[in-house]
Amino acid sequence: MRNSLLSPDEEWEFLGSLNFNAVSNAEDISAAQEAGELTKMLYTTRMSKYGHAKDFAHTVETLATHYKLGSNHDILLAKAETQFTKCNFRGTLALTSRILEDDRYNFAVLPVHLACLYELGERNALHLLSEDFTANHPEEPASWLAVGVYYLNIGKIAEARRFFSKASIMDTHFGPAWIGFAHTFAAEGEHDQATSAYTTAARLFQGSHLPQLFLGMQQLQLHNMELAREYLETAKQLCPIDPLVLNEIGVTYYQEDDLVKAIEYFLKALKVSEENGSDSKARLATRSNLAHAYRRANDLEAALSEFDEVLRGGSKDVGIYTTKAMILMDLGQPKEAIQTVHEALALNPQDAQANDLLAKALEEAGSAGGGEDANMEEIDHALHVSMQSASHRSPRRKGKDKQPAKVTRNEFDDMDLA
Q1: Residues 252 and 392 grouped into a single domain
Q2: Of 206, 229, 263, which residue constitutes the final position of a domain?
Q3: What angle (nearest 5°) sits at the alpha carbon of residue 285, between those of residues 246 and 88?
Q4: For 348, what's the count of Cα atoms within 13 Å in the CB-facing half-sphere?
Q5: Which of 87, 101, 177, 293 sits a CA distance of 20 to 30 A from 285?
Q6: Mean pLDDT of residues grouped by 10 in the chain (418 residues)?
Q7: How far apart are CA 215 and CA 205, in angstroms?
């Protein structure tokens, strides 16, 4: 179980096959049964967090109340892993920080803790933690994992790859290091190397849905929709509570112009995120995708509403403002479109699409008729193409990849090192 060698269903089947009544030689039958039940509950906390949520919640509650283990580090870690799978990063970080305050060098909790720091952009904390662990425990693979995550966070991909590789060599069964190593190739657009590394991780860690998820993401970038959906469906079977998986499946349908299915999966992803208590920022990209799908389906009012939600959530993406302005133009509101384009240009005055759209909006606002022309169609096409090509970009990359919109949350935005 520690090495994720079994699928979640196989783990629970294995648990059911064990004779826990044999763990005690007590003559008192009730004492023997209680010992067996306690052992079974302790095993349950180590199981996959992908399913059987009710069983897990009941087990944790019983251990916390009846056995007074609410502050036990293993129990807290089990709860943290569950919250992280649900993309509740701040809740997870609160639990892992509590463990590390009591036990500074608890290496079991470190991968989840590092992943949360990465998700929340805690660069200084990553730097201090990696220095501390490598200075005091250089023999531990998790210490070098911390260094790799820090370098990945600041965009130094080659350095990150070196330290992820070091951690995986020190412990060949250390899943987080393998995933991080593969991420470094994906960050540089090296699809063949990334696919090879994720495939190795999928073979080594059959109980984790992450390698399958990231393989699906790579195939999405290569526009191999059928293969992408196959990987993503496998990930969904392993972990149906991860909203990112549902989002990515929606992207495959979007790129195949099946907008009904795309909207269905984006809505499912948002529903699961809300049920999980996921961080609001983790839902922004999915909501943005939903808005794009509504717009292409010509449901302009719904699209406008979703884009407004994205902007209220704190998005500073020029493409979101530009696309919202396009919708306002389609709805015959050029003055409102002008205001929205100005907000886009405030973020990036040199954005070509925003400048072209501003010129068109000013022209329509100054004329009685207007209507769409070839220029408008070109802008619309540019927005659609840029949306698709932004799939899986690292937000820290610079240069020619600066597309103004996203199709999908980046794998590095959702790096589950656990």
Answers
A1: yes
A2: 206
A3: 70
A4: 16
A5: 177
A6: 80 88 71 84 86 84 90 92 87 95 94 94 95 96 96 95 95 90 94 92 86 94 93 92 92 94 95 84 88 94 93 87 91 90 90 87 70 49 44 32 34 32
A7: 14
